Amino acid sequence: MGMVTHMRFQELTESQKVVAKVIENSIAAQKIGHAYIFSGDYEPYLIETAQLFAKALFCEMPSGAEPCGVCRNCKRMDSGNIVDYMEVEPDGASIKKEQIQQLLSDLSLRGAEGDRQVYVIHQAHKMTTQAANSLLKFFEEPGVGKLAILVTTQPQLLLPTIRSRAQHLVFRPIDRVRLAEKLAEEMQCTNDLARLALTVYPKWDDAREALHNDWFVQAYGLVVQLVEVLTKRPQELLLFAQEKWLGHFKGRNELRVGLELFESWLEEALHFKVRTDYVPELFTKEQSLYTAFVNDRPVHKIVHAIEFVHEAIRRLEANVNPQLTFERLTFDLQKG
Ligand SMILES: [Zn+2]
Taking a C-beta distance cutoff of 8 angstroms, is the pair 139, 112 a contact? Predict the structure, then answer.
């Protein structure tokens, strides 16, 4: 597994006071439960926190809850190379019983290096009932030193029996503006581009990867061009689709990114239309295009455009050919 977090405990204390306090106290009192639920609105942050918690537990010379960062175990965590730390992610749409059984079998085999094992389940609400039941059985007799961290953005979808057997830490909503600033600083790009990347790619690493590539920057430019054509020369939409757009957004996943960027534009435009004092937070350099776009365009037409984009995304998910999907969208947009 490649990772790992470089988050410091100090950062967690600043952004998530309550969560940090609970973790700090349980480490200080050496009272670590056998299962925690981390819930919040931004999964990458929850996972980073889980990794940090694990690192603090494995660290050979932590200072309170802050891992030293230099010992053998910290180095192993940093390189994703520690056998007593495991992560499970959904395989497709769900986490299946076989995955949980594999995990439990790994947990029983390993543990040779120390008396602590930590396993993190991503999108834990996606466990099938059978998977959750396997885990529950394990919770009844977890053995010494085993710690489960169930990460979820939708804790209400976890089985009540799971919820009642784990300590639930609820994270405050993440400040996305700050998050984008952090990403922009790291990637040396504009805040605007970083925010869009975080909007389209829910995972931090995927957003970083996107910002590494010219492809994403060009995608940004094409979305602006799409809006320009739609605003000034709507009769040329199909031509634009064939000559430019479809040459860039080739497959299903690429087109999905393009559509989600376009959707972000439309949503900003809608705010801009209904609230005269609103300053768009995405595509921030395009203020005059926003003005031109919403001028002469009634609210319901912008709402329809958003619905057409949703419809196009649904078609993509239903395996309709990407080219046909986008051409159909240009037709819908022209009709309004
Ligand atoms: Zn250490």
Answer: no
